[in-house]
Amino acid sequence: MKARQRTAALLEVLGVYLAGQLVTGQLIRLLALRPVNPLARLTVEVTDADLLTATWRLLGLLALQYAGWFLLIIPINYWHRHRGAAAYGVTRAGHSWTALVGAGLATAALSLWPTLAVDLVNAIHPIGETVPWRQALFDTSWRRWQFWLFTAVLSWGLVAVVEEIFFRGYCQRRLAEDWGDGAAIAGITCLFIFSHTQYLTFNAYNAAKLPTLLLIALGSGVVFAKTRSLVPSIIAHAIGNVPMTPFWQAVVVVALIIGTVMGARRGATVVRQVFSGATVNGCVGLGVIATAYTIASARVEGLVFVAAMMVVLAIVLEAVDRGREPADIELAVG
Protein backbone atom coordinates (compact mmCIF):
# COMPACT_ATOMS: atom_id res chain seq x y z
CA MET A 1 0.00 0.00 0.00
CA LYS A 2 2.85 2.40 0.82
CA ALA A 3 4.40 1.82 -2.60
CA ARG A 4 1.05 2.60 -4.26
CA GLN A 5 0.70 5.82 -2.25
CA ARG A 6 4.22 6.91 -3.18
CA THR A 7 3.56 6.14 -6.83
CA ALA A 8 0.33 8.14 -6.74
CA ALA A 9 2.06 11.15 -5.16
CA LEU A 10 4.89 11.09 -7.70
CA LEU A 11 2.52 10.68 -10.66
CA GLU A 12 0.32 13.49 -9.40
CA VAL A 13 3.12 16.02 -8.89
CA LEU A 14 4.99 15.27 -12.12
CA GLY A 15 1.75 14.99 -14.06
CA VAL A 16 0.37 18.30 -12.81
CA TYR A 17 3.72 20.01 -13.49
CA LEU A 18 3.33 19.39 -17.21
CA ALA A 19 -0.42 18.82 -17.67
CA GLY A 20 -1.06 22.34 -16.41
CA GLN A 21 0.02 23.45 -19.89
CA LEU A 22 -3.00 21.69 -21.37
CA VAL A 23 -5.34 23.49 -18.98
CA THR A 24 -3.67 26.80 -19.80
CA GLY A 25 -4.07 26.10 -23.51
CA GLN A 26 -7.77 25.39 -23.03
CA LEU A 27 -8.20 28.63 -21.08
CA ILE A 28 -6.55 30.58 -23.89
CA ARG A 29 -8.86 29.01 -26.47
CA LEU A 30 -11.97 29.35 -24.30
CA LEU A 31 -11.30 33.03 -23.62
CA ALA A 32 -10.07 33.70 -27.18
CA LEU A 33 -6.85 35.18 -25.85
CA ARG A 34 -3.67 35.99 -27.75
CA PRO A 35 -0.97 36.07 -25.08
CA VAL A 36 2.40 37.55 -25.98
CA ASN A 37 5.66 36.77 -24.22
CA PRO A 38 7.11 40.22 -23.41
CA LEU A 39 10.54 38.78 -22.60
CA ALA A 40 11.09 37.81 -26.22
CA ARG A 41 10.76 41.47 -27.23
CA LEU A 42 12.79 43.02 -24.43
CA THR A 43 15.75 45.12 -25.59
CA VAL A 44 18.15 47.52 -23.91
CA GLU A 45 16.32 50.46 -25.54
CA VAL A 46 13.01 49.55 -23.88
CA THR A 47 10.96 52.66 -23.08
CA ASP A 48 8.89 53.41 -19.99
CA ALA A 49 5.70 52.74 -21.93
CA ASP A 50 7.13 49.47 -23.25
CA LEU A 51 7.98 48.36 -19.72
CA LEU A 52 4.44 49.04 -18.52
CA THR A 53 3.01 47.11 -21.45
CA ALA A 54 5.44 44.27 -20.77
CA THR A 55 4.41 44.24 -17.11
CA TRP A 56 0.72 43.79 -17.93
CA ARG A 57 1.49 41.10 -20.51
CA LEU A 58 3.70 39.27 -18.03
CA LEU A 59 0.95 39.43 -15.40
CA GLY A 60 -1.43 37.87 -17.91
CA LEU A 61 1.01 35.08 -18.79
CA LEU A 62 1.68 34.26 -15.15
CA ALA A 63 -2.04 34.27 -14.36
CA LEU A 64 -2.66 31.78 -17.17
CA GLN A 65 0.30 29.58 -16.21
CA TYR A 66 -0.62 29.30 -12.55
CA ALA A 67 -4.33 29.01 -13.28
CA GLY A 68 -3.46 25.98 -15.41
CA TRP A 69 -1.71 24.38 -12.46
CA PHE A 70 -4.09 25.28 -9.68
CA LEU A 71 -7.26 24.41 -11.58
CA LEU A 72 -5.87 20.87 -11.35
CA ILE A 73 -4.28 21.08 -7.91
CA ILE A 74 -7.08 22.58 -5.82
CA PRO A 75 -9.89 20.15 -6.78
CA ILE A 76 -7.63 17.10 -6.53
CA ASN A 77 -6.21 18.09 -3.17
CA TYR A 78 -9.53 19.07 -1.68
CA TRP A 79 -11.05 15.78 -2.79
CA HIS A 80 -8.04 13.78 -1.61
CA ARG A 81 -7.28 15.46 1.70
CA HIS A 82 -10.04 18.07 2.30
CA ARG A 83 -7.44 20.71 3.11
CA GLY A 84 -7.53 24.47 2.71
CA ALA A 85 -4.99 27.21 2.10
CA ALA A 86 -2.94 26.36 5.20
CA ALA A 87 -1.95 23.04 3.63
CA TYR A 88 -0.09 24.99 0.94
CA GLY A 89 1.94 26.94 3.48
CA VAL A 90 -0.20 30.08 3.21
CA THR A 91 -0.16 30.43 6.98
CA ARG A 92 2.05 31.44 9.88
CA ALA A 93 1.68 27.84 11.15
CA GLY A 94 1.57 29.05 14.75
CA HIS A 95 4.80 31.07 14.50
CA SER A 96 5.18 34.77 15.18
CA TRP A 97 6.03 37.15 12.35
CA THR A 98 9.33 37.86 14.07
CA ALA A 99 10.25 34.17 14.04
CA LEU A 100 9.25 33.72 10.39
CA VAL A 101 11.11 36.81 9.20
CA GLY A 102 14.13 35.69 11.20
CA ALA A 103 13.96 32.25 9.60
CA GLY A 104 13.74 33.86 6.15
CA LEU A 105 16.79 36.03 6.80
CA ALA A 106 18.70 33.05 8.19
CA THR A 107 17.81 31.01 5.09
CA ALA A 108 19.03 33.87 2.90
CA ALA A 109 22.29 34.08 4.86
CA LEU A 110 22.97 30.35 4.64
CA SER A 111 21.99 29.78 1.02
CA LEU A 112 22.14 33.00 -1.02
CA TRP A 113 25.67 34.36 -0.83
CA PRO A 114 27.20 31.87 -3.35
CA THR A 115 24.79 32.79 -6.13
CA LEU A 116 25.16 36.52 -5.43
CA ALA A 117 28.93 36.05 -5.45
CA VAL A 118 28.72 34.45 -8.90
CA ASP A 119 26.63 37.37 -10.13
CA LEU A 120 29.15 39.81 -8.64
CA VAL A 121 32.07 38.14 -10.41
CA ASN A 122 30.10 38.10 -13.66
CA ALA A 123 29.25 41.80 -13.30
CA ILE A 124 32.92 42.71 -12.78
CA HIS A 125 34.32 40.33 -15.39
CA PRO A 126 31.75 38.51 -17.58
CA ILE A 127 32.25 34.75 -17.49
CA GLY A 128 29.48 33.71 -19.85
CA GLU A 129 26.50 34.84 -21.86
CA THR A 130 22.99 34.79 -20.50
CA VAL A 131 19.70 34.72 -22.40
CA PRO A 132 19.10 37.94 -24.42
CA TRP A 133 16.19 39.24 -22.35
CA ARG A 134 18.15 38.96 -19.09
CA GLN A 135 21.12 40.78 -20.57
CA ALA A 136 18.85 43.51 -21.93
CA LEU A 137 17.30 43.92 -18.47
CA PHE A 138 20.73 44.21 -16.85
CA ASP A 139 21.87 46.81 -19.38
CA THR A 140 18.82 49.08 -19.49
CA SER A 141 18.26 52.00 -17.11
CA TRP A 142 17.25 51.06 -13.56
CA ARG A 143 16.46 54.65 -12.56
CA ARG A 144 12.74 54.50 -13.29
CA TRP A 145 9.83 53.07 -11.38
CA GLN A 146 8.63 51.19 -14.47
CA PHE A 147 11.77 49.04 -14.31
CA TRP A 148 11.14 48.17 -10.65
CA LEU A 149 7.48 47.42 -11.28
CA PHE A 150 8.42 45.07 -14.11
CA THR A 151 11.08 43.27 -12.07
CA ALA A 152 8.68 43.05 -9.11
CA VAL A 153 6.36 40.98 -11.27
CA LEU A 154 9.16 39.11 -13.02
CA SER A 155 11.32 38.11 -10.06
CA TRP A 156 11.43 39.53 -6.54
CA GLY A 157 7.72 40.22 -5.96
CA LEU A 158 4.97 38.19 -7.55
CA VAL A 159 7.09 35.33 -8.92
CA ALA A 160 8.82 34.84 -5.58
CA VAL A 161 5.38 34.24 -4.03
CA VAL A 162 3.69 32.07 -6.67
CA GLU A 163 6.78 29.93 -7.33
CA GLU A 164 7.05 29.12 -3.62
CA ILE A 165 3.34 28.30 -3.40
CA PHE A 166 3.63 25.90 -6.33
CA PHE A 167 7.01 24.26 -5.78
CA ARG A 168 7.11 24.17 -1.99
CA GLY A 169 3.48 24.64 -0.94
CA TYR A 170 2.10 22.09 -3.37
CA CYS A 171 4.82 19.92 -4.96
CA GLN A 172 7.06 19.44 -1.92
CA ARG A 173 4.21 19.15 0.53
CA ARG A 174 2.38 16.58 -1.63
CA LEU A 175 5.45 14.38 -2.05
CA ALA A 176 6.32 14.72 1.63
CA GLU A 177 2.95 13.20 2.57
CA ASP A 178 4.07 9.82 1.24
CA TRP A 179 7.86 10.10 0.74
CA GLY A 180 8.87 12.14 3.77
CA ASP A 181 10.42 15.60 3.91
CA GLY A 182 13.97 14.69 2.91
CA ALA A 183 13.14 12.86 -0.31
CA ALA A 184 10.51 15.45 -1.22
CA ILE A 185 13.04 18.28 -0.83
CA ALA A 186 15.56 16.44 -3.01
CA GLY A 187 13.03 15.80 -5.76
CA ILE A 188 11.49 19.26 -5.83
CA THR A 189 14.89 20.93 -5.62
CA CYS A 190 15.79 19.26 -8.93
CA LEU A 191 12.38 20.02 -10.43
CA PHE A 192 12.75 23.67 -9.44
CA ILE A 193 16.30 24.09 -10.72
CA PHE A 194 15.87 22.48 -14.11
CA SER A 195 12.57 24.25 -14.76
CA HIS A 196 14.67 27.45 -15.02
CA THR A 197 15.72 26.77 -18.59
CA GLN A 198 17.61 30.06 -18.93
CA TYR A 199 20.46 28.41 -17.00
CA LEU A 200 20.65 25.25 -19.11
CA THR A 201 22.81 26.73 -21.89
CA PHE A 202 26.34 25.55 -21.20
CA ASN A 203 28.89 28.25 -20.38
CA ALA A 204 31.06 29.19 -17.41
CA TYR A 205 28.39 31.44 -15.88
CA ASN A 206 25.65 28.81 -15.94
CA ALA A 207 28.06 26.08 -14.81
CA ALA A 208 28.81 28.19 -11.73
CA LYS A 209 25.21 29.33 -11.28
CA LEU A 210 23.42 25.95 -11.22
CA PRO A 211 25.14 24.59 -8.07
CA THR A 212 24.34 27.83 -6.24
CA LEU A 213 20.68 27.53 -7.26
CA LEU A 214 20.77 24.02 -5.81
CA LEU A 215 21.76 25.48 -2.46
CA ILE A 216 18.97 28.09 -2.59
CA ALA A 217 16.33 25.49 -3.45
CA LEU A 218 17.54 23.17 -0.69
CA GLY A 219 17.46 26.01 1.83
CA SER A 220 13.92 26.97 0.83
CA GLY A 221 12.79 23.36 1.05
CA VAL A 222 14.35 22.83 4.46
CA VAL A 223 12.90 25.98 6.02
CA PHE A 224 9.42 25.14 4.66
CA ALA A 225 9.65 21.62 6.06
CA LYS A 226 10.76 23.04 9.43
CA THR A 227 8.23 25.87 9.77
CA ARG A 228 5.35 24.63 7.54
CA SER A 229 5.00 28.25 6.44
CA LEU A 230 6.02 29.77 3.11
CA VAL A 231 6.87 33.15 4.63
CA PRO A 232 10.59 32.36 5.22
CA SER A 233 11.20 30.85 1.80
CA ILE A 234 9.39 33.74 0.07
CA ILE A 235 11.60 36.23 1.93
CA ALA A 236 14.79 34.38 0.96
CA HIS A 237 13.58 33.98 -2.63
CA ALA A 238 12.74 37.67 -2.92
CA ILE A 239 16.10 38.80 -1.52
CA GLY A 240 17.91 36.61 -4.04
CA ASN A 241 15.94 38.03 -6.95
CA VAL A 242 16.20 41.78 -6.24
CA PRO A 243 18.32 43.50 -8.94
CA MET A 244 21.54 44.90 -7.45
CA THR A 245 24.48 46.92 -8.71
CA PRO A 246 27.95 45.40 -8.11
CA PHE A 247 28.47 47.64 -5.07
CA TRP A 248 25.30 46.46 -3.35
CA GLN A 249 25.95 42.86 -4.40
CA ALA A 250 29.29 43.08 -2.61
CA VAL A 251 27.69 44.61 0.50
CA VAL A 252 24.98 41.95 0.64
CA VAL A 253 27.44 39.10 0.00
CA VAL A 254 29.60 40.25 2.92
CA ALA A 255 26.55 40.61 5.18
CA LEU A 256 25.28 37.15 4.23
CA ILE A 257 28.67 35.53 4.81
CA ILE A 258 28.74 37.06 8.30
CA GLY A 259 25.23 35.67 8.83
CA THR A 260 26.40 32.26 7.61
CA VAL A 261 29.24 32.18 10.12
CA MET A 262 26.86 33.12 12.93
CA GLY A 263 24.08 30.69 11.94
CA ALA A 264 25.95 27.72 10.45
CA ARG A 265 25.67 25.51 13.53
CA ARG A 266 21.94 26.11 13.94
CA GLY A 267 21.39 25.63 10.22
CA ALA A 268 23.22 22.28 10.24
CA THR A 269 21.06 21.13 13.14
CA VAL A 270 17.86 22.00 11.30
CA VAL A 271 19.05 20.20 8.14
CA ARG A 272 19.83 17.06 10.14
CA GLN A 273 16.39 17.20 11.76
CA VAL A 274 14.56 17.59 8.46
CA PHE A 275 16.53 14.81 6.74
CA SER A 276 16.61 12.50 9.79
CA GLY A 277 14.07 10.08 8.37
CA ALA A 278 15.26 10.22 4.76
CA THR A 279 17.13 7.48 2.92
CA VAL A 280 19.87 7.99 0.36
CA ASN A 281 17.99 5.86 -2.16
CA GLY A 282 14.81 7.88 -1.75
CA CYS A 283 16.56 11.25 -2.10
CA VAL A 284 18.73 10.22 -5.04
CA GLY A 285 15.90 8.38 -6.75
CA LEU A 286 13.46 11.29 -6.64
CA GLY A 287 16.22 13.71 -7.60
CA VAL A 288 17.17 11.71 -10.69
CA ILE A 289 13.55 11.17 -11.73
CA ALA A 290 12.67 14.85 -11.33
CA THR A 291 15.78 15.96 -13.23
CA ALA A 292 15.20 13.59 -16.15
CA TYR A 293 11.50 14.43 -16.32
CA THR A 294 12.03 18.20 -16.24
CA ILE A 295 14.66 18.11 -18.99
CA ALA A 296 12.54 15.74 -21.09
CA SER A 297 9.48 17.99 -20.68
CA ALA A 298 11.28 20.73 -22.60
CA ARG A 299 12.54 18.43 -25.36
CA VAL A 300 10.07 15.59 -25.91
CA GLU A 301 7.08 16.61 -27.99
CA GLY A 302 3.79 15.13 -26.82
CA LEU A 303 4.98 14.40 -23.27
CA VAL A 304 2.29 16.75 -22.01
CA PHE A 305 -0.36 14.19 -23.02
CA VAL A 306 1.49 11.49 -21.11
CA ALA A 307 1.47 13.84 -18.14
CA ALA A 308 -2.32 14.16 -18.37
CA MET A 309 -2.61 10.36 -18.21
CA MET A 310 -0.27 10.39 -15.19
CA VAL A 311 -2.67 12.72 -13.38
CA VAL A 312 -5.61 10.44 -14.19
CA LEU A 313 -3.71 7.37 -12.98
CA ALA A 314 -2.73 9.17 -9.78
CA ILE A 315 -6.39 9.98 -9.10
CA VAL A 316 -7.34 6.35 -9.69
CA LEU A 317 -4.69 5.15 -7.23
CA GLU A 318 -5.77 7.74 -4.68
CA ALA A 319 -9.40 6.69 -5.13
CA VAL A 320 -8.41 3.07 -4.45
CA ASP A 321 -6.75 4.15 -1.21
CA ARG A 322 -9.79 6.18 -0.20
CA GLY A 323 -11.97 3.14 -0.82
CA ARG A 324 -9.73 0.98 1.36
CA GLU A 325 -9.57 3.36 4.33
CA PRO A 326 -12.67 2.06 6.20
CA ALA A 327 -11.47 -1.53 5.80
CA ASP A 328 -7.99 -0.62 7.00
CA ILE A 329 -9.41 1.15 10.06
CA GLU A 330 -11.63 -1.85 10.84
CA LEU A 331 -8.66 -4.22 10.61
CA ALA A 332 -6.59 -1.97 12.84
CA VAL A 333 -9.35 -1.84 15.49
CA GLY A 334 -9.96 -5.55 15.29
Quick recap:
The chain is mainly α and 334 residues long.
What does this structure look like?
- It is a single chain.
- It is globular and about 60 Å long.
- The C terminus is likely disordered.
- The protein is an all-alpha fold and 334 residues long.
- The protein has one domain.
- The chain has 13 helices and no strands.
- The two termini are 19 Å apart.
Keywords:
single chain; about 325 residues; disordered C terminus; about 80% helix; 13 helices; mainly alpha
The helix-and-strand class reads mainly alpha
Mean pLDDT: 91
Task: Enumerate how many helices there are, as a single number.
Answer: 13
Assembly type: single chain
User: How many discrete domains?
Assistant: 1
- Span between N and C termini? 19 Å
Rg over C-alpha atoms, rounded to the nearest angstrom: 21 Å
The proportion of strand residues reads under 5%
Question: How many runs of DSSP E, i.e. beta strands?
Answer: 0
Overall, the morphology is globular
Low-confidence stretches: 327-334
Range of helix content: over 70%
Question: What's the layout of helices and strands?
Answer:
Elements: H1 2-30, H2 48-81, H3 97-111, H4 113-124, H5 132-139, H6 145-156, H7 158-179, H8 181-194, H9 204-227, H10 231-241, H11 246-274, H12 280-297, H13 303-333
